Amino acid sequence: MLDAKLLEILACPHCVTRPEAPPAGKRKGEFEWVGEAAAPTGLRCLQCGRVYKIEDGIPNLLIEEAVLPGGQA
User: Fold this and answer.
1) What pLDDT is stored for residue 25 in this prediction?
2) Is-contact 52 42, C-beta < 8 A?
3) % helix, strand, coil for the chain, step of 5
4) Cα torsion at 6, 38, 68, 46 (round to 10°)?
5) Distance (Å, whole) CA 8 – CA 11
6) What is the pTM of this model?
7) E strand or H helix that includes residue 69
8) Comparing 33 with 18, which gets the higher pLDDT?
9) What is the pLDDT of residue 45?
10) What SS3 class is residue 63?
11) Average pLDDT over residues 27-50
12) At residue 48, does pLDDT exceed 70?
């Protein structure tokens, strides 16, 4: 199980380097859990929609391996 504080610390590596502003009320590159809260399968960026998989309890934040909105890798 991953700590909820992790969402406050991590940010989408794609969005933090982009000039676009985040959605109103969100911080740049903010994540939400994908899957069940007790055992999430990924992190979804609320700005760009990329999903970063969680593998063996460790978020994989490589931009090249993220799944784009619509299911494209």
Assistant:
1) 83
2) yes
3) 15, 25, 60
4) -50
5) 8
6) 0.84
7) none
8) 33
9) 94
10) helix
11) 90
12) yes
Residue type, 44: R
Other CB atoms closer than 10 Å to residue 59's CB: what's the count?
Answer: 16
- Give dist(CA 23, CA 61) in Å, integer: 21
Query: Tokens 């909105």, residue?
Result: 69
Q: How many CB atoms lie within 10 A of CB 28?
A: 17
- Name the amino acid, one letter, at 20: E
Are residues 29 and 39 in contact, defined by beta-carbon separation less than 8 angstroms?
A: no
Q: Is the torsion defined by CA of 4, 8, 10, 13 positive or negative?
A: positive
CB 27 within 8 A of CB 46: no
Q: Is 70 helix (H, G, I), strand (E, B) or coil?
A: coil
- List the domain boundaries for the chain: 6-65
Average pLDDT rounded to a whole number, residues 44-59: 93
Asked whether the predicted pLDDT for residue 34 surpasses 60, the reply is yes
